[in-house]
Amino acid sequence: MHEMALAEAVVRIVTDKARSAGAERIVRVRLEIGALAHVEPAALSFAFEAVTPGSPAAGAALEIDRAPGRARCDTCASTVEIDRLGEACPVCGGVGLRVLSGDELRVKDMEVG
Ligand SMILES: [Zn+2]
């Protein structure tokens, strides 16, 4: 389950940020997960709760925003939203979509206390 590794990475990132801000406790973490990132939000929330005890993020609320996948079509040059990789262009039916964004997972915001 790669959500566990992702949750550990997120905890490392927010712990580093909190420490460099001089904060001891993390209250809230907001993540942005692209629709193409192959991350299950429920599984990530579960993993986050599993890995935070004993860290400054223990008990922190995790909020997850989904970002749409965006791609550009090589055939008709439209910029379109897609839910998963391998979809055809909704405008022209072409298959030459190049992903512009939506495959990332990032810490968007956090609150320390
Ligand atoms: Zn197209």
Can you offer a commentary on this structure?
With 113 residues, the protein is of the alpha+beta class. The chain has a domain at 2-68 and 102-112: 2-Layer Sandwich (hypothetical protein PF0899 fold), CATH 3.30.2320. It is 27% helix and 34% strand. It has helices at residues 2-20, 41-51; strands at 26-34, 61-67, 69-73, 79-82, 97-101, 105-112. The strands form two sheets. Strands 2-1-6 form a three-stranded mixed sheet. Strands 4-3-5 form a three-stranded antiparallel sheet, with no helix packed on it. β3 and β4 (79-82) form a beta hairpin. α1 packs across α2 (41-51). The longest helix has 19 residues, at 2-20. The protein is elongated, with a radius of gyration of 17 Å. The chain binds zinc ion (ZN). Zinc ion is lined by residues 73, 75-76, 78, 89, 91-92, 94.
Strand content: 25-35%
**How many angstroms separate the termini?**
31 Å
Assign a percent range to the helix content.
Answer: 25-40%
The level 1 CATH classification of the domain at 2-68 and 102-112 is Alpha Beta
**Uncertain ranges:** none
Please work out how many helical segments DSSP would assign.
Answer: 2
Q: How many whole angstroms does the radius of gyration measure?
A: 17 Å
Q: Strand order within the widest sheet?
A: 2-1-6
Number of strands: 6
CATH arch. level architecture of the domain at 2-68 and 102-112: 2-Layer Sandwich
What is the N-to-C order of secondary-structure elements (H for helix, E for strand)? HEHEEEEE
CATH fold label of the domain at 2-68 and 102-112: hypothetical protein PF0899 fold
Q: Helix- and strand-based class?
A: alpha+beta
